[in-house]
Amino acid sequence: MSQQPLLLHLPQIQEDTAYDSSEKIIIVGADESDDESNCGRTPPFSWKKLWLFTGPGFLMSIAFLDPGNLEGDLQAGAVAGYSLLWLLMWATLMGLLIQLLSARLGVATGRHLAELCREEYPTWAGIVLWVMAEVALIGSDIQEVIGSAIAIRILSNGFVPLWFGVIITALDCFVFLFLENYGVRKLEAFFAVLIGIMTLAFAWMFGEAKPSGKELLIGILVPKLSSRTIHQAVGVVGCIIMPHNVFLHSALVQSRQVDQSKKGRVQEALNYYSIESTIALIVSLAINIFVTTVFAGGFYGTEVANSIGLANAGHYLQEKYGGGLLPILYIWGIGLLAAGQSSTLTGTYAGQFIMGGFLNLKLKKWMRALITRSCAIIPTMIVALIFDTSEDALDVLNEWLNVLQSVQIPFALIPLLCLVSKEQIMGSFKIGPVLKIISWFVAALLIVINGYLLLDFFSAEVNGTVVATVLCALTAAYVAFIIYLVSRAITFSPWQSVIQKKTISNSEN
Prior knowledge:
Blueprint: E1 25-26, H1 47-53, H2 56-61, H3 67-80, H4 85-109, H5 113-120, H6 123-155, H7 162-170, H8 172-180, H9 184-209, H10 213-221, H11 230-240, H12 243-252, E2 256-257, H13 263-299, H14 313-321, H15 328-359, H16 365-387, H17 391-408, H18 410-420, H19 423-426, H20 433-461, H21 465-487, H22 494-508
């Protein structure tokens, strides 16, 4: 008897789901044989099916292209030149591994990460994980909304102030809700257009700037790292893995109708999702390389290299390269706007799944979107009003937001790795020993890198005995919770014994 995810044996109860059955895209056609003799066999490759499965990976890839990532790219290029391109490539590969594990969890179990965390962990731990996920999402959304507002200010020649750009960006929630009513494929097509705009804009910018192709190739193939560029290197890696994106991808893959009781169908879905996610992240890597090399070619070794940030990057580009058929300032603004708008929309999407999964809220999607949008927009408005007149202050704020999200990374990665490693949850689709070792090594590396970022940042920014004492206490609690999460990887939670008993009872019957 083939092993299947044991969550299938749980009693069916009414609870929040990522997608209703009426919303899911049906992949298996009436012309395909799906009898018992074939249910364990993976169907042959089909280009038509690859097209039908294409979508979730591209939505996931937008988190690799948000304004926070673009700022990390431009700073790496301006300060470190071409020397960190190899690290950008390897960080993207690590991100791909994490996202494929997230997709694997969603497809094999039919549940997404937030739902499984609610069931796997005690109530208190689930609440902590939910709060951490929401904080990470809000921090990311502030960066994305501010990035969109900066783009709007650029494209309006400074006429639209930052705070009003935030209001305009906030209205994208209604665009999202409007498109969602027309089905998953329409929503995915809209995001594909935004990714296409980003690709065209930054490729055009790359063509205008004409960076060195030889230096680009050397930067990708030859690893280089110095003490002078370590901060930018940590920033490049830290920007790639977004906590909310790990939760998002495990839910997005459930937009396709996959029968978890048939091993061949599950494996088929995993194969197609792996292909489309890889293609999506290759596109995102190309865009990140475009941005890094443009700033490397134009500003590396100059006096202004260390002062370039998201808010003033367009003006520096205009001074350096001027205008062609379309001034490079506006090309940058268009690409930044597409990045900001697409990432805020996917952030709204992720917020729905995180809130619904952790709290099991049976709210209508428009209500959840409105709630999650408000949680991010209100603090963003406050930030915009405070920092509107100071570009340096915006850069400092962005550093704090990067730190905020770095803190949250273990609370998405560790539960994910624990869950995909357990046969009691994944059945025959649990990850094997080699992949488990690689995955935990990548997770540990990311946590150490972000730990270095935190240590470096706080040692420079935090002063005073009282603040240091409070920070030490919070750090101790933080580390203790991480140790607790890791310990769950080698212990079974109480409800899993119930699953095992239920499975044995079913097999006997």
